[in-house]
């Protein structure tokens, strides 16, 4: 799969999955733009891509803030032009029962996960429709369909992403735009390792989880032209365990 000439935006790209997606796409020839809350983190990943011979641009951006999203995508349009690929990967997660979830925690989940996905889609969609080409991939979670206790706010935000994905796909499929989602299982990332260290109830071993490079290969396929017949899908990528 080659991505020469394609511009890809990846959110939540300062570490873990987002960084892995950016590196994989850059290695396949894409120009990658990395968005993340912490500018220093996305700048570090972008520098690693550049050192390896790829093209990368880093921008600090909290996708849950619509004004920051607008500012970033205005800059992208000015410096690079249209976006061909959008991977909505940024996420916030904290495990709390519904009873213990404050309104502030609820808002954090909805803003970072669901609203952030919506804001970024709104930013790229007019250009994709005009060019009659685009790939949008939204990262949901196995937690949105397997009903883990403590995942109320997170699952609600990630389930909303799937519904948004499937309806948007119907709305834009005649414009050459593919919109899909992944129900992602537990993956060996920095965030997951921190959860394991802080929660003795999590007993899954690191080698039983999905690995970042495994997920990156699936993601690159789903945003490639080879996957053009796949529209409005929400695909289980669970690995050995969810």
Task: Give your account of this protein's structure.
- The structure is a single chain.
- The protein is α/β, with parallel strands linked by helices and 242 residues long.
- Helix content is 47%, strand content 17%.
- The protein has 8 helices and 7 strands; from the N terminus they run βαβαβαβαβααβααβ.
- The protein has a 7-stranded parallel sheet, sandwiched between helices.
- α4 links the parallel β4 and β5.
- α1 packs parallel to α2, α1 (16-27) crosses α8 and α3 (66-79) packs parallel to α4.
- It is globular, with a radius of gyration of 17 Å.
- It starts with 6 loop residues before the first strand and ends in a 5-residue tail after the last strand.
- The mean pLDDT is 95.
Map the helices and strands.
Layout: E1 7-11, H1 16-27, E2 31-36, H2 39-51, E3 55-60, H3 66-79, E4 85-88, H4 103-131, E5 134-141, H5 143-146, H6 152-172, E6 177-184, H7 190-198, H8 212-222, E7 234-237
Helix pairs in contact: 1-2, 1-8, 3-4, 4-6
């Amino acid at each position: 799969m080659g991505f020469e000439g394609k511009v890809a935006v990846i959110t939540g790209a300062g570490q873990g999955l987002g960084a892995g997606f950016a590196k994989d796409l850059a290695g396949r020839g894409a120009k990658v733009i990395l968005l993340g809350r912490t500018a220093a983190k996305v700048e570090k990943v972008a520098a690693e891509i550049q050192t390896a011979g790829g093209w990368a641009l880093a921008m600090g951006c909290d996708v849950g803030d619509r004004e920051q999203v607008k500012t970033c995508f205005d800059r992208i349009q000015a410096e690079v032009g249209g976006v061909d690929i959008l991977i909505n990967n940024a996420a916030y997660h904290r495990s709390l029962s519904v009873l213990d979830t404050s309104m502030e925690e609820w808002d954090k989940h909805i803003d970072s996960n669901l609203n952030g996905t919506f804001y970024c889609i709104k930013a790229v969609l007019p250009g994709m429709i005009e060019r009659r080409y685009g790939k949008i991939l939204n990262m949901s979670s196995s937690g949105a369909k397997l009903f883990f206790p403590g995942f109320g706010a997170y699952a609600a935000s990630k389930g909303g992403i799937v519904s948004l994905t499937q309806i948007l796909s119907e709305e834009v499929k005649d414009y050459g735009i593919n919109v899909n989602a992944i129900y992602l299982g537990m993956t060996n990332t920095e965030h997951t390792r921190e959860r394991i260290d802080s929660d003795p109830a999590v007993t899954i071993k690191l080698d039983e989880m999905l690995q970042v490079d495994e997920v990156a290969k699936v993601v690159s396929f789903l945003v490639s032209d080879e996957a053009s017949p796949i529209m409005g899908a929400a695909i289980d990528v669970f690995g050995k365990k969810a």
